[in-house]
Amino acid sequence: MTAVLERATDADLLTLLERDYRRQLRWYPKPWRTAHGDALIGTLLDEADDTDRFTMEPGEWRHFAAAGLEARLDRFAPRRVRDAAATVLLSAGVGIALTTFVVESWAPWSTGEDGRIRAFGPFFDAGPVLTALWIVALLSALVGRWSIGRVALLVSVLAAVLLHPLEALLAPPQFVSLDPRVLTLSATAALITVLGTPRTRTPLVAAAVGWAGLAAVAHAFELLTAIDSTGSPTGFLLGDPARTSWTVALALAVAAVFALARFALPAAALLLSVVPLAAGLEATFIAFDWAEPIAGEVLVALPVVLGVIVLVVTSHRATASGGRVRGHAVAPERRRRSGRAVGVAVPIVILGGTAGALTASGLDWTHPVGMSWSDYWRTTATGPLPDFAHHPDATLTYALPHGGSCTIRVAITDTSSGPRPDRAAADTARAALAEGAADGTLLDRERLRAAIKDNPSRQNTWRNFWGVDIRYGAGTGNYNPDVEYFEAVDATLRSEVLQSVERAGASPEDVDYTSVQRCRGEQR
Amino acid sequence: MAQPLGESAFWILTALAAGRRHGYAIVQEATTASDGEVRLKATTLYAVLERLELDGLVQQDGEEVVDGRTRRYYRLTDDGAGRLRADTDLLESKVRAARSNLAGFRAAKGLA
């Protein structure tokens, strides 16, 4: 082998080196290789020649990987578009994370009456972790150490992805994860931000404060409009899919106007910035309506996503052929082509976005055709509390298997028609409830599990909006452990109360057991 | 005002301001002009050249094949020269301001 090397001429060795370099070119997209590949190889070989080098430098492949991957990224969204989107999303991410932290995770004014538990230290959920990571990213950008910011945001993506599975694995007694929709929004925004470098010359902090204010307004609006079964706002910022769809459509229309006015960079940057919202919308469908046979998510998300892709790609061309850089010569043929592309893309985006939003508004989100757990929870654990629940004989809070929490309020009514002594039945029932609630034996997890196990084939029917009775429960294909548990709690409580009455020698017919449940974070 | 040129872009434009050059000659010229401070990587060179070309600051100016190797020449456009001049003027005014204040600083020290 050594002999061969000795006999090989410099030219032979350079040919070997060229082969190595050409292999590295594969990091680049094909059009880039065609346009610049030979020139790059020529320069590399000139340099090797000049420095008497016949092999690649150790670690040199990394330069190819970085530059090649960036060139691939450029084809999707050029650097200045990515930077602009990163600027928008970094400030928006910090602002929204801050507001989410204050109104959802911390909510110092909340007494937990709605059944939420401060499960993560002094906070309701793990929101402060994400907020802290976003703030670290902002500070890193401001002090010019964006690589730290990138790492912080990638960690936040990892946290967002792992929170739910980790929780399922560790099965903590309470629900510490965030709403999957908010997690999707945060993770997508972080991923897009990482792809660019935020411009620190723009007032990032002021923008973040502005976004936080905007999110607070949105939260207040949510308080007024979308209320879940506990009477608190649902799916912060993404609570109403129809409204989110309209927001996305509006942003797309504004981007289209930008594109028509040949402001290609703001158009493309805005589009890229809307992607997290579209992703959050998609997560709404997946997390809450995925059993739905009408694929609402396809109807809404497809035109939106298609529009975004088409416009990003065409705006890329428009940006590439000059954007707003003044005065230099741009091949007129190229400009015409990008103009045509934008002309085609704009109607698609406007029509697609509007159709998506219309579809979203037109679909009755509350009433899907098959079994809908969201609908189940809505009908069983929503609405204003009935009168008796304001003065219940017992109020118990418990955790669902998937981490959500429920509060059950029970009232015992005396239904005896006889004279005073018969009231003993109601009194016994109330005493049993109070005692069981105090020492925690009533809702003992083991006891509930045993109750469920004793009756594994317990199946029920649920009448959906269309009047169809849907069978659900273990073994039906419509199985939801949270629902099973939720129903077992009520049934166990009722049987305990009535048994205690019987044990005391009174008649169970003389008491009426009434209960109402309100849940949060239930499995849908 | 446009974003200031990045470090690599500044040295590539400076190298091309001396005349049309092919890839490796740009690398060498940038090193010489910066007193050895700057060593452009070939991958960076072509990434930046592509961007500068899209912005109309440089232009391809012919190719030749030497020993089976492609040498692609680039030259500065008028816009590129204008941009480099604007950046240089900005740097110069910064340098002037700093020098003049530093001179005052020395004088004050001398008096004290």
UniProtKB/TrEMBL annotation, chain A:
Keywords: Membrane, Transmembrane, Transmembrane helix. Residues 502-524 are annotated as: Disordered. The chain crosses the membrane at residues 84-103, 123-144, 151-170, 182-197, 204-224, 244-261, 268-288, 294-314, 341-363. This is Uncharacterized protein. It comes from Amnibacterium setariae.
Automatic annotation (TrEMBL), chain B:
Residues 12-85 form the Transcription regulator PadR N-terminal domain. InterPro entries: Metal_resp_DNA-bind_regulator (IPR052509), Tscrpt_reg_PadR_N (IPR005149), WH-like_DNA-bd_sf (IPR036388), WH_DNA-bd_sf (IPR036390). Pfam families: PadR. This is PadR family transcriptional regulator.
